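Limitations
The structure tokens in this dataset are predictions for the assembled complex, not deposited experimental models. Users should treat interface geometry with appropriate caution, especially where small molecules or nucleic acid strands are included. An illustrative entry is reproduced here so readers can see what is and is not provided.
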Amino acid sequence: MAVILDENAIGEAVATLVEQIRATAQRSRVAIVGIRSRGDEVAERVCAALEEAKIEHDYGMLDISLYRDDLSHLAENPKLQSSEITFQMDGAEIVLVDDVLFTGRTIRAALDAVTDYGRPARIQLAVLIDRGHREIPIQPDYTGVKLETARMDHVIVRLKKTDGEDAVELVTTP
Amino acid sequence: MARKDFLDIASLSREEVDLLLDQATPFKELFTRSVKKVPALKGKSVLMLFYEPSTRTLSSFEVAAKRLSADVIDLDVPHSSVTKGETVKDTVDTLQAMRADYIVVRHKMSGLPRAIARQTRASVINAGDGAHAHPTQALLDAFTLKEAFPDLSGRKILIAGDILHSRVARSTSRLFLKLGVEVGFLGPGSLVPRTGPEGITRFTDFDEALRWGPDAVYLLRVQMERQEAQYFPSVHEYHRVYGVTQERFKRIRGEGIYIMHPGPVNRGVELCHEVMDYERSLINQQVENGIAARMAVLYWLKPQTDSEEVNRE
Amino acid sequence: MSLLIKGGEIAREEGAPVRGDVLVENGVIKAVGQNLEAPEGVREVDADGKIVAPAMFDAHVHFREPGQEHKEDIAHGTEAAINGGVTGVVMMPNTSPVIDSAAVVGAVLDKARQVSRIPVYTSGCITKGRTGEGLAGIDGMRNLGVVMLTDDGDPVANPAVLKNAMEYATSFGMFFASHCEVPELSGPRALNEGKVSYQLGIKGSPACSEEICMDRDIRLAHATGAHVHIQHVSSAIGMKTVRWWKERGAKVTAEVAPHHLIFNEEDIGEYDTHYKMNPPLRTLEDNAALLEGLKEGVFDLIATDHAPHGEFEKGQDFVSAPNGITGLETALVSLHDRFIAAGEFGWDLIVKRYSAEPRRLMGLDPVAVEEGKSAELVVFDPAGETTFSRDFMRSKSVNTPFLNQTLKGRVDLVVRGSEVLLER
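Predicted assembly:
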């Protein structure tokens, strides 16, 4: 087990992400939608940066538990949290935000969830970390940092508000 | 931990109750979306097994299951008891052939859902058995009152009517007690058991019960056959002594007491006409919340069907 | 057959067991004493550390024959009795057809003579068809040896009918056994009215349903000079009712069933029909009062109310499942396990209440382990264990809460006359 990203490195990754999204957000109003859990915290940081830059935007949170394709295989269904989508979804410019992009299945579920709220004009994807190993054809539009990992590795993200500290660990399975 | 069955309130822990009440909220939020359906139970089937007629509870479960994308099978069963001599096992064997993942049972025999649950891999949900339990009603009741009082502990609820024959009174009072709510029972002496649950204040006088200071009055539906069985002399007398009369309603409104009722209401018996338009009547919320609470239960349960069926083949 | 039972503790009706050897020759107890020598050709049985007791007698069993042989029959019922150390039984008449005439009594006793290795007695109905109306063929039954009249399973609802029957049959030297209950108060006759009936949501049968009828029947017996035997008393006030009437000189005897001493309504748990019987299991306080009544002698005898039912019948929902549990095979061991081993009472109580008194009730001589008496005894190992598995059971039915449980104590040997009925 090794810490591969510390607080500074995470800060840089968020900054990289903000930098890219900012360009889009300046052209047209975007809605930053974080995927629970931790995607919402990354989204909050992105929003804070946009706010500082006085770029108007919308913010939302999405719990995608009900859209997962693996519920039948779980001994216990994930605890459901509230989704908060207060803006008009029809015609919106959505930037979905998650902490780690891995197989892509979470994003597939999030796309289904978003479209059940309405018909957005466009959906883009921003991820703090892209660790590869996709199982479905989904690619990010914005990436904070890319990590080289093996398929069976675990990438554990801890963020201040959710977990008390900023750190990313890589657990390799021998 | 997830459970296979949802049979009564007694066997639930406080943590499980809190989880279910928390989970009902996100489900209720779905009702404001343009698409009210989610794919969580896609490909699963929910068998409705109602041996007692009940349009309201049946539809509530159907809507809940359909909003979770499950297939609903409404089995047309005779609205009578299991035929004498037919054992629970025989019934279950018939059901197994349907390969349902969830079975929602209502039956006039107390304990029948548990007997079914013991013998099937499907998740069994008790939709009311005899005078024993109606746990999803209890859940929606608690969820509804929680919307009025986010912290329920220390609140007081008065449950009024035919406690003796009421599964709603049993399950709802049990759940409220678990949540730290003080519970009072009010009704004719012939319909409020003397040897009942501990920790419940027993009233036979409505005005005295109101002096106790309830935050909500929960009126149970009066079954007309109780009058025939001489539990009380007449419906008029019942209304006068144990119903929310116009006079009592003034007092209830004055004190801002909430009104609840599991439906359907007998106007002029449990309550007077005016109560239906009362701003603190939670009766309509109870109906809407019933769907959310039942979705939360369906989402929480884990049938044994999937993996084990596969393993056997 | 001759046996020398060496070194056992001989249980008696009065006083603690005393150590001694028992010599049985040709069905008779030849000698009881210390250091007896086995005569030539006599087999020795080592009973060191074991109890040698008079064999038991059960005055309340349902053998379901004729008519419901899928539950039990005389052949299996009597073998179940032997398995539990019981060598005499009184059948209840609620068979199908009911035992209400000389013809049916004759048929039952004939069958028993063919298939049973122990004596079988039968009671007869009070009313024709056990309907509560019209007297049964009382004299015809008496001529075949019936002494106990009962509509067991139900009370005689009309007190005038019972009063007439008492006045009529008492002059024949017969007595009455009462199943006490006011049906209108009993709901579906499923369980006690109280905490558990509320929780389970089933209308309960209150103890007063039994107590009112009990008082009524004793009062009628007292008024008519009849002897009434109160069956399966289940409540504290029921016990006190019997005590009160005994103190006033009424000719009343009473029995208590092992299950009413051992279990209470809480054992029903989540609708376990193995705890469903009538009268129902009541409360912990009632258990204590019944035990007190047994020790004090308010209860003249212990009787099991052995009531076999098929598994599919007991497998129904709680209200539809029939009342009753089997008892013959479990009574002695369970009473030992719960009470004797726990120091609540001694073997003298068991001998008096489950062997001597029930025989006296039926006008029979007790079967003490004494020199000169006919041999009718059991050897019981208090250190042994019994597992009530399906294999162990000889009854046709296994509807007992003790199914697959292991209890302290074991019936090792049952002897009647010159026959060893059971040896483990």
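Some entries come with short summary sentences. For this one: The first strand of chain B starts at residue 45 and ends at 50.
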